[in-house]
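JOB MANIFEST
job_type = single_chain_structure
chain_count = 1
residues = 582
[input]
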Amino acid sequence: MQEKRKATLQRLAHLMMNHKLLLVLIFVLSIVQVSLTVYLPILIGRAVDAIVGAGAVEFDILQAVLIQMIVVVIVNTIVQWILPVIYQKIAYELTQELRQQALDKIHSMPLSYIDQRGTGDLVSRLTTDTEQLNDGLLLVFQQFLIGVLAILFTLVMMFRINPVMMAVVAVLTPLSLLVSQYVAKKSYEEFTMSVRLRGELSEIVEESVTQNEIITLFNIHEEKQDQFVELNENYSRYSEKATFISSTVNPTTRFINALIYAGVTYMGAVLIINNGLTVGGLTVFLNYAREYTKPFNDISNVLAELQSALASANRLFEILDRPSEEETGTKEYIHGEIKGEVTFEDVDFSYTPNTELIQDLNVTVEPGMKVAIVGPTGAGKSTMINLIMRFYETDQGHITLDGEPITNYTRSSLREQLGMVLQDVWLKSGTVHENIAYGFPNASREEVIRAAKSAHAHKFIEALPNGYDTDLNDGGLTLSKGEQQLLSIARIFISIPNVLILDEATSSIDTRTEILIQEAFHKLMEGRTSFIIAHRLSTIQDSDLILVMQDGQVVEQGNHEQLMRKEGLYHQMQSARSAEVI
C-alpha cells in the first residue's frame, strides 16, 4: 500500500512538470509572498519599540513604519490573489488531461474490459474521482508549498533574534508533523476503501435509474433498497472513519503547538526581565513562532486530505495502465469494392479461459446471401457477430472477408463496411438530426430525411415540436420504444454498408410499421451479405442460409425447407414456436 501511494505521488509530480513555466512562476511568487509575510512582523516589532514608554513615542519612526506596513499588505494581497489563479489553472488542466486520457483509454480498450466493469464505477472514476484529485492538488499548492517556504524563512529570522528559543521551537514543533504522518498512513487505507465503495454505490444508483422499469416489473424494489442500504452504510462507515482519523490531526497539532507557544512566551519574558530581549523583539519572535507552527497545521491537513486524492488518482491510473486494444492490421478496405464473402475457418473462442464456447467453427457465406442465425439463449449467436465486428478476437483460426483475414485490416476500416442494428436501442444526447447522422456527422439534412423516410420515421419526426431539430434531452419529450428504434434503424440508411447485421431490429415496432421496415430491409439486402440474429423464426424463413447454433457450434445449416426435412433442432424449434419466440 505504501509503495503504491508513493508511486502514485511520483506520477502526479511527473505530470505537473508539464507546466514548468507556471510552476516556476508559482515558486517565485510564493517566495515573494512568504518574504512579505515574514517582513511584516519586523515592522510590527519596530512599531512596538517606537511607542514603548510614557511620553516616548517616536512619531516619525512610527509613521514611516506604518506606511511600509500598508505597502507590504497591499503587495502581499495582490500576490495572494494571483497565486490561486495559477494554482487552479494547473490543477484543472491536469485533471482535465487525466479525465480525457482516461476516456480515450476506455475507447481504445478491448470490449472485454468494459463488459467486466460496472458502468457506474467507470463513471465515478471519470467524474467524482477527478474532482477529488483536483481538490487535493489545490490544497498542495495553496498550503503545502507556502507552508514549507514559511518554515524555512521563519527559522532563519528566529535564529537571528535568539538561537536558543529558535532551537526549542524547531525541535519540538515537528512532533506535530510526525503525528500527522502516522494518521495519514491510517487514513489512506480507509479512503481507498471509501472511494471503491463510492464507485459501487454509483453502480447501484445507475442501475436503479436506468433499469427502473425492470425493477418495477419484478417488484424487487425492496431487494434493491436493501442492497443500497447495506452499501450506503458501508460507504458511510468507511468515509466516517477515514474523515474522523484525518480530522484528529488538526486538534492534536494545535495542542502541541500551543504548548510550544506558551513555553517560548515564558522564555521571552525571562529574557526581557534580564534585558536580553526587548518587548518588540519578543513580539516579533512570537509572530514568527506562530507563522512557523501554522504551516505544520496546514501541512498536516494537506497530508490527511491528500490521502483521498491519491486514492482517487490511483483509480484513474488503473484505467490508464490497462493495455489498449492492439491494432493488428494496416490495410484499408475500399468502400464499394467489397463483395461480401465471409468465412469462418477453424475458429475457437471463449470469453473466459476455462469455459469453452465456440470450438472449430467452419462456415462459408457467399456474397449477397441472407444468413439467419438461430439457436437457444447462450448458443453463441451474438458471439459470432461480435467476432465479425472484431469486438472480440478469435482464440484460434481466423475470419476472412473476401478471402483475406479481417485482422489484416484496421478495425475502423472493417467496421465502416458493416452496418449493425441492435435490439437494444441507444440514442445520444442531441437532436433527432444528430442521432440519425451519428456515424456521419457531416451528413446533409436531405440525406438525413432520406434515411428517415427509408426507415419510415419521417412522419413521426415531422410531428415533433421542432422536427429534425427537436432536442431529445427535452424533459417534456418522450419517445416510445418503437420511435426510438426507428431512429436507430434510420442510421443505417445514411451510408449503405456492404455487410448488414440485424439483431431483431424491429422488436419494438408495431406490426404494420414492421412490415414496411422489413420491405425496406429486403430492398437494402439485395446484393449485400446480411446476417440476421433471429428471435422470431417467422421472419427468417426466406433466408438463403440458416445457421442453427447450440453450445457454440453450428449443428445444422441450410435453408428452411432443407432444415425442416432433417427434423433436427431447427424442426423442434419451429414446432415449439407457438409464441414465435425462442
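[summary]
Strands lie at 342-349, 358-365, 370-374, 396-401, 404-405, 418-421, 499-503, 529-533, 545-550, 553-558.
The chain has a mean pLDDT of 80.
exit_status = 0
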